[in-house]
Amino acid sequence: MTPVRVLIVDDDALVRAGLRMILSGADDVRVVGEASDGGEVPAAVAEHRPDVVLMDIRMPGIDGLAATETLRRRPGAPEVLVLTTFDADEYVLRALRAGAAGFLLKDTAPARIRDAVLRVAAGEATLSPSVTRQLITHVTTAPAPDRGHSERRLDQLSTRELDVALAVAQGRTNAEIATQLFMSVATVKAHVSRVLTKLDLNNRVQIALLVHDAGLA
């Protein structure tokens, strides 16, 4: 298996060294580069071609939020995992809206950091469905985007797809959604994939945020 290529972005050299040490111990992950500021990200991504970027939020120059927004607008952009202290970083929501695949606490256990990197590289969000609602509750302090716009986007969905989207926003797992809506897990997965495609979203977290913005959660 080709190792997942990771770029570490953090202004703290000790944090970068710690993350490199953690990830370098895994055969299926390879740290290909580092950057100390968001302004260095475009050049570092072009040089190292990472699959996943571990992005700190608070940096003295261009912060991780702006860097994530810029990066995720580019075609073929790598996935982004936001590094945060969570309780102090009220702007995590902005990073998720920009297309970050999720977040990691800086004191996350090493094995879970590696697991999160692999999951993101495989196209999954690092937030489990069970914590999606908790995340939204903690970080929705900023004004939500225009509700009408969010409602119009959701109007693209079929009735069944909307049912699945609402269940995702409630933090339910695929198995729980299958039980609730009387369908197979495979059918739920298919609906989730269609919702992501129709709405041009990256992951379940963004589905939940859009449903929230539309006032349906």
Structure description:
This protein has 217 residues and is α/β, with parallel strands linked by helices. It folds into 2 domains: 4-126, Rossmann fold (3-Layer(aba) Sandwich), CATH 3.40.50.2300; 147-213, Orthogonal Bundle (Arc Repressor Mutant, subunit A), CATH 1.10.10.10. 51% of the residues lie in helices and 13% in strands. The chain is built from 11 helices and 5 strands; from the N terminus they run βαβαβαβαβααααααα. The protein has helices spanning 13-24, 41-48, 64-72, 92-97, 110-121, 129-139, 147-154, 159-169, 174-181, 185-199, 204-213, and strands spanning 4-9, 29-35, 52-56, 79-84, 102-105. The chain has a 5-stranded parallel sheet, sandwiched between helices. Strand 3 (52-56), helix 3 and strand 4 form a beta-alpha-beta unit. The longest helix has 15 residues, at 185-199. The N and C termini lie far apart (40 Å). The model has no long low-confidence stretch (mean pLDDT 86).
Set down the secondary structure blueprint.
Elements: E1 4-9, H1 13-24, E2 29-35, H2 41-48, E3 52-56, H3 64-72, E4 79-84, H4 92-97, E5 102-105, H5 110-121, H6 129-139, H7 147-154, H8 159-169, H9 174-181, H10 185-199, H11 204-213
Parallel strand pairs: 1-2, 1-3, 3-4, 4-5
Helix pairs in contact: 6-11, 8-10, 8-11, 9-10
Summarize the structure.
By secondary structure, the chain is of the alpha/beta class.
